[in-house]
Write a structure and sequence with these properties.
The protein has 173 residues and is α/β, with parallel strands linked by helices. It has 2 domains: 47 residues, no CATH class; 123 residues, Rossmann fold (3-Layer(aba) Sandwich). 49% of the residues lie in helices and 14% in strands. The protein contains 6 helices and 4 strands. A 4-stranded mixed β-sheet has the order 1-2-3-4. β1 and β2 form a beta hairpin. The longest helix is centred in the last third of the chain and has 26 residues.
Length: 173
């Protein structure tokens, strides 16, 4: 199994821990915040890492094994998604995402809020999203109620993609 990627260098982790300790010393600081929490936070954000010399071709977050991208997540707000649906760029983006081994789009809002859109016809957006899902069934569009839930879902999706890639490597090896 490949070692988990890290988002920060050892020096950056040290600075984060030192800052957390300084914040704890403030008179009104929450005393439950300690080094273990900082370490957990750093590890939970590890999926955000990608090679600094290389930009992602598609998606907002990706995980890779041995230089090969095994999972990609594109994150969108509902207003951005509605705009992309109406101008046709969502289909282009889904086509690019479909080339990845595992890919998904996560929306930081609820599906019900599609029908509360003001500047575009809600039924048209819903129809076009349904058509996009039929055209690209291997790239799910997942609606999460809030941004933290969307981040959590992306974290879990990319973790599962990484684990499955490791399982595939063992099966093939």
């Amino acid at each position: 199994m490949a070692s988990p990627p890290t988002i920060f260098s050892a020096l950056r982790r040290h600075h984060v821990r030192e800052r957390m300790r300084r914040l704890q010393m403030l008179p009104d600081a929450a005393h439950w915040l300690h080094e273990a929490l900082a370490a957990d936070l750093i590890e939970r954000l590890a999926f955000l890492r990608h090679a600094p010399r290389r930009a992602l071709i598609v998606g907002d977050y990706a995980v890779e094994v041995d230089g090969e991208t095994v999972g990609v997540v594109e994150r969108k707000r509902l207003s951005e998604l509605a705009s992309n649906v109406t101008d046709g760029s969502l289909l282009l983006r889904l086509g690019e995402l479909a080339t990845a081994r595992r890919a998904a789009v996560v929306v930081e809002d609820r599906w019900a809020d599609v029908f509360r859109l003001v500047h575009v016809q809600p039924s048209m957006v819903a129809e076009m999203l349904a058509a996009a899902q039929v055209r690209y069934p291997n790239v799910p569009i997942v609606f999460c109620e809030t941004r933290p839930l969307a981040q959590e879902w992306a974290y879990r999706f990319l973790g599962a993609a990484l684990a499955f890639a490791d399982e595939e490597a063992v099966d093939l090896g």
